[in-house]
From TrEMBL:
An example Gene Ontology CC term for this record: cytoplasm
Swiss-Prot/TrEMBL keywords: Leucine-rich repeat, Repeat
Tagged with keyword Repeat: yes
InterPro entries: Leu-rich_rpt, Leu-rich_rpt_typical-subtyp, LRR_dom_sf, LRR_domain-containing, LRR_R13L4/SHOC2-like
Taxonomic source organism: Hemiselmis tepida
Domain Disease resistance R13L4/SHOC-2-like LRR: 120-202
Stretches assigned to coiled coil: none
A Pfam family annotated for this UniProt entry: LRR_8
Name of the protein in its database record: Disease resistance R13L4/SHOC-2-like LRR domain-containing protein
Domain of life: Eukaryota
Length: 659
């Protein structure tokens, strides 16, 4: 055939498998191209055979043929569904490809492409596009027009960015972007929720942060999806992602209203936070921040600002620019003072500064006339400034675990208080002015050094809970009986020798603790406390219990551990709701009569007494699941697996037996 003027060899020639030599010297062929012909007869026939087969298979595979351009002649573009041009020498995507409108797969990997033409977007039926191992620096925006694309491989290129339009590829399930020069992934990738495979490794990515990338591709897509959703919800939750830096992509979300960055490892808040002017809620708790940028003060729309549980030693004065703050939380830091700037937050209702190192409360706090909740607990305070009296709406004041020796007079001017906590201080007296706080529902003065409770306590008729345990109180005021709303009274660990009969008029009381006092008897009127559910009398010196306790029909827990009881009245059987009866460490020689009638009893402790026998009648208590009998003089007990279906723990001298 040499020396002829053929420009194309017929593809059917490729079926001549026995042809050994084909002389094409001095021909002017375009198909096959010169680079194929120069490789010899076998390569030429292989090329022609592939072209011939494509007419029936609708697949044309010219991979590994070293071609530099697409053949012009001999290709039937109509109906072709798969075109493979992998591992060749192509520098451009052949324009002929864009005429192949039936293509569903296009493989041009391992070539020398540096540009992907915009017309690639016209291949509307394309489902797979492989561009791996080329020299591409970018992808055209039109890539997003390939609505049916399921597989997109562009790894091992020089891509520096990905167009946002990739987010329009809603059918995409497999995306390979590894081994490029990408520093930022577009947020729109987060829209590709159908992705089952995404490769991002070996890119110098800074956004998403490395902490997200390290968690895997699926977490990365979820992270980006969270961003994209925030464009419509205006809320972004990036909590508990181990982030060490403020994510730069946040600056793309200028309309964000709520931002959660809590439970990360952020050490420095970017000054760029000041650009997010529409934020109304900012959550930064539980990070490692040491300082805050002045620019934080530009967030004049923020109503909730949570800086708690960081390592902040000061707040910038500029924070006063956050004039709309309603809820300000900075507890569990290292703050030594409250900045005057707090007084520039006129709408402040909640100020939580507990667990810091505060020794002084700035008078400017008094400017916060809308304040309702002030928490200064776990600090080093010994006084409160009189300006706090201007905060007349405060309903909850927490100053526990400080250095107060007296209740500051200013506290007694806060007549809207419903919850007052002074536990774990050094109080030696309660001022009678406490009686002015008639709206109080909760009063906690436990763990102090109080010897008495003032009689004005009786003015607090709305009080529901009174905690005065762990003091040195040796008597109770008669006015205690006037607390007719009281439901919980804790007087444990004091010096009480008598519980006055008048106190038994507290008929609303549900829980009463008199543990660890010096009581030797109880008044008969105890039976009047008909609402009691829990009565704790352990650690006293009681030798008897009044028969009236049998009227406590609502009682569920009765603890008499550590007393001097040798017997209990049979009226005990009247406590039909009793679930726990604690009689450890007494002087009982027999199980009290009536215990066998407590059909709801679950826990019975009789250890460290003088018992020699356990009545068989106790086996009727089918609700029992825990019995303590250790340190008695028993030789046997009636409890067996067969007769006690719910008994789980039996503590006897032989050890713990699990039935």
């Amino acid at each position: 055939c040499g020396g002829n003027r053929f420009t194309m060899l017929p593809p059917k020639l490729g079926t001549l498998t026995n042809l050994v030599e084909l002389d094409l010297g001095n021909s002017k062929l375009r198909t096959p191209p010169t680079e194929v012909v120069s490789k010899g007869t076998a390569a030429t026939l292989e090329y022609l055979a592939r072209m011939y087969d494509s007419k029936s298979s609708l697949t044309l595979d010219l991979s590994g043929m070293d071609i530099q351009s697409m053949p012009v002649d001999g290709i039937e573009t109509t109906g072709l569904t798969r075109l493979a041009l992998s591992n060749n020498l192509l520098k451009n995507v052949p324009w002929e490809v864009t005429d192949m409108t039936s293509l569903t797969e296009l493989w041009i990997d391992k070539n020398h492409l540096d540009v992907l033409p915009a017309v690639i977007g016209s291949l509307a039926g394309l489902r797979a596009l492989n561009l791996n191992h080329n020299n591409l620096h970018s992808l055209p925006v039109s890539i997003g027009d390939l609505e049916k694309l399921q597989v997109l491989h562009v790894s091992h290129n020089d891509l520096e960015s990905i167009p946002e339009s990739v987010g329009d590829l809603s059918a995409l399930t497999d995306l390979r972007l590894n081994n490029n020069s990408l520093t930022v992934l577009p947020l729109e990738l987060g829209l590709l929720t159908g992705l089952s495979m995404i490769a991002l490794h070996n890119n110098p990515l800074v956004s998403p942060p490395k902490e997200i990338i390290e968690r895997g591709e699926r977490e990365t897509i979820h992270y980006l999806n969270t961003y994209t959703q925030s464009r419509t919800t205006f809320e972004l939750d990036l909590a508990n992602l181990r982030l060490s830096e403020f994510p730069s992509q946040l600056l793309e979300l200028q309309d964000l209203r709520r931002l959660s960055l809590q439970d990360n490892a952020i050490t420095n808040l970017s000054p760029n936070i000041g650009q997010m002017a529409k934020l109304t809620e900012l959550y930064l708790q539980r990070n490692n921040m040491l300082t805050l940028p002045e620019e934080l003060g530009r967030l004049n729309a923020v109503t909730t600002l949570d800086l708690s549980q960081n390592r902040l030693s000061e707040l910038p004065p500029a924070i006063g620019g956050c004039v709309s703050v309603v809820n300000f939380r900075a507890y569990s830091n290292r703050l030594s003072e409250i900045p005057a700037a707090v007084g520039s937050m006129p709408g402040l209702r909640e100020l939580l500064l507990g667990n810091n190192s505060l020794t002084y409360v700035h008078p400017a706090v008094g400017n916060c006339g809308e304040m309702q909740h002030l928490d200064l607990s776990h600090n080093r305070l010994s006084t409160l400034h009189a300006s706090i009296s201007n905060c007349r709406l405060i309903s909850r004041l927490e100053v526990s675990d400080n250095l107060f020796t007296t209740v500051p007079p200013v506290v007694c001017t806060l007549t809207a208080l419903t919850d007052l906590r002074f536990e774990k201080n050094h109080l030696t007296v309660l001022t009678p002015l406490m009686g002015n706080l008639v709206e109080l529902r909760m009063l906690d003065v436990s763990n102090n050094k109080l010897p008495t409770i003032p009689r004005t306590i009786g003015n607090l008729t709305a009080l529901l809970e009174l905690h005065a345990n762990d003091n040195i109180i040796d008597s109770l005021p008669p006015s205690l009986k006037d607390l007719f709303s009281l439901q919980r009274l804790n007087l444990a660990t004091n010096k009480l020798k008598v519980f006055q009969a008048e106190a038994a008029d507290l008929t609303s009381l549900k829980r009463l603790s008199l543990s660890s006092n010096e009581l030797v008897s109880l008044p008969p009127e105890m039976g009047n406390m008909s609402a009691l559910k829990e009565l704790l009398l352990d650690g006293n010196q009681l030798s008897t219990v009044p028969t009236s306790v049998g009227r406590l029909t609502e009682l569920e827990i009765l603890n008499l551990d550590g007393n001097r009881l040798s017997l209990l009245p049979p009226e005990l059987a009247g406590m039909t709701a009793l679930q726990e009866l604690w009689l450890h460490d007494n002087q009982l020689s027999v199980v009290p009569e009536g215990v066998a009638d407590l059909t709801n009893l679950c826990v019975l402790t009789l250890s460290n007494n003088q018992l020699t026998n356990i009545p068989v009648a106790l086996t009727r208590l089918k609700s029992l699941n825990e019995v303590w009998l250790k340190d008695n003089q028993l030789r046997a007990h009636p409890f067996r697996q067969g007769n006690m279906p719910n008994l789980n723990v039996l503590l006897v001298d032989m050890g713990v037996q699990v039935i």
